[in-house]
Each structure stands twice: as structure tokens, then as C-alpha cells.
Amino acid sequence: MSGKPENSVEPGVPDLTQQTTFQLIVLLNFIMRPFFSSVGRVHNLTLTEWRVLFIVAAHPGITGAEISKAYGFDKMNLSRAVRQLDKAGQLARTPGEADRRRSHLTVTAEGAATVNAIAPNALEREDLMETALPAREMAAFRRTLDTLTALVRDGGDG
Predict the structure, then answer these.
(1) Where are the domains of the chain?
(2) pTM of the prediction?
(3) Could you give the 3-state DSSP secondary structure of residue 103?
(4) How confident is the model at residue 28 (pLDDT cuts 50, 70, 90)?
């Protein structure tokens, strides 16, 4: 047995656990397990805050709207995370020149220190995945992820 429970689906109920989308969620659950067990607690971050912090560190000056569009964040959850990171001194918000309602986000020195403290763990998880597949297969996997991400991003919430 592969660690999964035996297949005993209720009659007339589709087994959604066999869908690719569900399997991606399972993979992400296992990848993110260290976050929930330690990283989030130690750094007092939610998963959304952690993700926003990494995105802003990689793309200084990005706006919330750009994050939502590019990374698929729910706008309310994103707004809450940005407010909390700003309140905690991890992010700085600068009003846009053309539209003062749109803040451009940057990490503060404290935010950069948090990213630098968490990054080794994230890179270790990435390395684990990178070594699981030959380079050619990993490149194909990344292309597949890009294709599927573009498909659902462009397809909306349907």
C-alpha cells in the first residue's frame, strides 16, 4: 500500500481524490508540511503572508492587484496578508503616483531578514524535488505546470 487508504468510494459518488487537481493539492500539502509545523509558528506568519513576502522580495514595487492576477490570490486574503505584514514591519507600502489607491509593495529590512531566514528551508524542499526527477523530466514538469497555470488563469474561476 502506498500510504493511501483503500478505495471504497460511496456508490454514486465520484472519487475526486483521483483527479490531477486533487493530487496537486496533496503534493502541496506534503511540500508545505514543514511550514505548518515550524516556519509559520517561529516567524509568526500565515501561509498567505509567507507567500506574499517571498513574492514581494522577488518583485519589489509589485502591487496587490499584480500579485492577485499573476499568482491567483483571493483579493480579500491578499489584502489581509498585506495589512498584517505592513503592521508587523515586514512590508512597506508606497502609494502609486498615477493611482494613490494602489500601493507598491517592498520588503523592509525586517522582511528581508525573515525571507533570508526562511529561504534555506524552502530551497531545501526545492532541492528534494529537483533530485527526484532527471533534469529533462523536471524541465518538462515545469513546462507542464506553466501550461496548466496559464490555462486555468485564463479560464477564470469557472
Answers:
(1) 45-155
(2) 0.80
(3) strand
(4) confident
For residue 85, give the nearest of 32, 36, 34, 43 by alpha carbon: 43
Query: What is the topology classification, in CATH, of domain 45-155?
Result: Arc Repressor Mutant, subunit A (1.10.10)
Residue 115's pLDDT band, with cuts at 50, 70 and 90, is very high
Cβ neighbours of residue 94 closer than 8 Å, sequence gap 6 or more: 61, 103, 104, 105, 106
pLDDT digits (tens, 9 = 90+) for 73-88: 999 999 999 999 999 9
Residue 90, Cβ density class (10 Å: 0-12 exposed, 13-18 middle, ≥19 buried): buried
The count of residues in the chain is 158
Cβ proximity of 49 and 57 under 8 Å: no
Cβ neighbours of residue 101 under 8 Å, at least 6 residues apart? 95
